[in-house]
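In the current project phase, we have settled on a layout for protein records. One protein thus recorded is set out beneath this paragraph:
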Amino acid sequence: MENPHGWRSRPILRLTFLVALALAVGFGSARIWKAVHAAQLQTAIDRLRTMYFTEDYEGAKTQGPRLVRRFPASTQLRAWYLLSAAWPSGMGQEAVKLARQMTRDHPDDPWSWFALAGTQVSHLTSDQEGDEVLAASAKALSMMPRHPDFLWLRAWTLFLTVKHVGEVPAFVDAHLAMVPNPAELLVLKARALEFLGTEIRHDEAQIAAAYEIMEEARRADPENFHARYLPGLFLSRRGEPEKGLPLLKNAVALAPDSVVGHREYWRAFNTLEPSLQPVERAAVLADVQSVEAESGERPWALSQIAEQYGSLGLRDRQVALEDKLLREHRDDPIGRIVLSNRITRLADAIDLWGVRQPSQDPSHAMPIE
């Protein structure tokens, strides 16, 4: 016998099915959206972290505010942005103030203390401030005792407070096995040994050990920027640019957005023996032009490019970029630096300080017969 209510039950069943399907789709979509959001946030965090470790501070300053606005709840993202923003080409003390506010708003969040220690250590002016930085990094590490970034931060603050730099090698050795990628910790150990062996008491064994540990860091992570950039920088600045230049060139190949890296590659070239420069000059000029094309309106990057054009003898290009910076940033720190550089060049040209050697003074040139 047919169900006399079948004509009613079928629509109800259909409606129930459609409602269940809609709920399932809705719940599934919510999970998918959360997964996509989490992936996008992690990409943003990785981006700012990479910018910091490749010393692309100006790039982080440019991109960071937009990413922080997009993910306002992420203290980890904000922390990495503030660490880059704290450096001289960024926001300076304002970044420290924002990090300090994070510790008030989120006192139980380890990334708040990470941000405070990581920004304040860039602006130390006294032992008391150094003690505050070490207290903040210790507090952060106590909350995340096995996290690689928090272990790195502790070693970094020990290194930059100077009087504790001798503690860095032992700290790194004690924690190296905890991290999956030890390269940045090894780099800090090497930096500490290099500093101790050159700035505290000359020690060739410590200096040699530093370069060996940098090589170990390169083996541990062939993509690590600092493991090439820093030994290249040290060699170049200590009178061996021919050895430092290949390392710096490799570093900028790994991190093409690092204007700091490019600048040191150019400076290594500038200090080569004149007989060695022709081989590398075309590559350096091409690199300068490439960085200029990619730098857009970043003032600090453009100021470094202008300086290198001058070092290459291309004064017209140097002056054109400086004119642009002076028009657009006259009252900014970058504008003042550019103006100061111009005044210094003019003073040198007319020997305003009276320091030119006789051989450099045109008045001592051989008379033209």
Notes: The two ends are 131 Å apart (CA to CA).
